[in-house]
Amino acid sequence: MTTRLPFSRRIVIAFVLMTMVVSGSFSLGIVAVVHFVEDQLISKELRGKLNMVLHEDIRAGREPRLDARTRFFASNSAGHPIPERFADFPEGFTEIEEEDEASYVYVLEANGARYMLLQDQREFEDREEILFSVVVAGFLLCIVLSWGLGVVMARQVMAPVARLAGQVRHPDQLDTRTAPLAPSYAHDEIGHLAAAFDKTLGQLRRSIERERLFTSDVSHELRTPLMVISTSCELLLENEPHDAQREQIERIARAARDMNDLVRTFLMLARSGLDDAAETATLAEVAREQAELWGPALRAKGLDFELVDEGADTAGHNPTFLRTVMANLMRNALHYTAIGTVRLVLERDGFCIEDTGMGVPAHERDRIFEPFVRGTAARGEGLGLGLSLVKRICEHTGWDIAAKSGQEEGTCFKISFAPAHAPDQPRGSNP
Ligand SMILES: Nc1ncnc2c1ncn2[C@@H]1O[C@H](COP(=O)(O)OP(=O)(O)OP(=O)(O)O)[C@@H](O)[C@H]1O
Ligand SMILES: [Mg+2]
Q: Which atom of ligand 1 is closest in space to residue 410's alpha carbon?
């Protein structure tokens, strides 16, 4: 079983437990020794006194010579009868500790008679109580001291670990120019940990940099041929082509524009901050444009398509991101719906795309947002990248995406622009 307690607290607990065991054993040892010595010494003393009374005083017919704290009883003496309550006491030493009485009793049986010495021990008991209080106070003090010492030690032990954690967590760590961590630590376990972080962070930095360069190179290099295609389409349209040709040219121009949008999306995702100054579009504007694009395709497949405005959000959004998200969800709705209706519903805080398709089984609902994952409903030649791109855009913009679906009941993907959680921690899952 793994414990979730912070390491520093575990150090403190270990200190306190160790002290409890050590000082507890010492305290118990002291109490046991005091009791043992008390039993042995007092028993020896009482036996000696009783023998003296019997052999010197009683034999000589004298009254026992005892101090005020000690009394003598005998079963065969009318002057010192054994009180009723001591009648059953066993032979040897017994200690009486009652609320109003604290005494030692020593019983001796000889020649068919019982002899008894009773010694008041309240004074000793009071001292014993003081001693035990001191032992308990010492025990508690040891625990408090060990707790304090544990806190100080834990802080000292954890200081380099906390410093290392802070450095590893720092956003600059992914910057290739950041200095390595290991040289600023001693050559111990923490130094080894820092060296391991340096190695892993180095690999991570290199692969991030490679991916960033790849994405921006590819995106950048694709823009020129795409521009050539778009301009050529415009020129071809100026030559008054007949209807069938016009339709094909417009399809090519639309595809080039879609690719251009995708290139921009990839560039923006690769270089965070690039989209800050970009133009904005409202949800209704982008939805209208996407409805014009996907409506005919849906109807051509025999599906109904509805654009429902339930009081759409009026804020300005990055049009490239919004277009890419909506287009991917619309394309999926078109692919994975055989009969029925696809609805694009604009809401106050976002939008949802509902279909009456085959739905996503519950066990697939989280995984379909991962790259290269296709569900059992997968159709055609897709790679399983559409929803992962949507999810990455949502992480980048702070939007929230949730999928609601039941098998045979269709699917509903909902995008919320104002999620309850902070950006970069997307839910990307089913509610
Ligand atoms: N509207 C939907 N209805 C039913 N299943 C869906 C729907 N949208 C997505 N899915 C499931 O989620 C999987 C992942 O979708 P995603 O868009 O990521 O990939 P894809 O559509 O298979 O391929 P690509 O988008 O890369 O062309 C799909 O394979 C499909 O099983
Ligand atoms: Mg898809």
A: 3
**pLDDT at residue 424, rounded to an integer:** 45
**CATH number reported for the structural domain that contains residue 258 in this entry:** 1.10.287.130
Domain boundary among 221, 248, 269: 269
Ligand nearest to the CA of 430: 1
**312 is in which domain, residue-wise?**
278-416
pTM for this model (two decimals):
0.56
Among protein residues, the one with the nearest Cα to ligand 1's atom 31 is: 375
Compute, in angstroms, the gap from residue 265 CA to the centroid of ligand 1.
Answer: 19
Domain termination site, one of 127, 147, 167: 147
Identify the pLDDT of residue 221: 85
Ligand 1 cavity residues, CB under 6 Å:
332-333, 336, 355, 357-360, 368, 374-375, 377-378, 382-388, 411
Burial of 151 (0-12, 13-18, 19+ CB in 10 A): middle
- Using the mean position of ligand 1's atoms as its centre, give its distance from the Cα of residue 368 in Å: 7
- The predicted-structure confidence for 133-142, as pLDDT tens digits, reads as follows 999 999 999 9
pLDDT value at residue 426:
41
Are 306 and 219 part of one and the same domain? Answer: no
pLDDT at site 425: 41
Q: Report yes or no on 346 lying in a domain.
A: yes
What residues sit around ligand 2, an ion, with C-beta below 5 angstroms? 332, 386
Q: 217-228, pLDDT tens digit by residue?
A: 887 788 888 999
Q: What gap in Å lies between CA 133 and CA 145, rounded to an integer? A: 18
- Regions of the chain where pLDDT drops below 50: 421-431
Could you tell me if 311 and 226 lie in one domain? no
Domain presence at residue 162: no
**423 falls within a domain:** no
Number of domains in the chain: 3
The CATH number for 343's domain is 3.30.565.10
How would you label 52-61 residue by residue, b for 16+ Cβ within 10 Å and e otherwise? ebbeeebeee
Q: Would you state the pLDDT for residue 217?
A: 82
Q: 325 vs 73, 88, 373, 382, CA distance in Å?
A: 104, 96, 17, 16
Buried b (16+ CB within 10 A) or exposed e, 285-294: bbbebbbebb
Residue 240 and residue 335 in one domain: no
Q: How far apart are CA 64 and CA 74, in angstroms?
A: 11
pLDDT of residue 131: 92
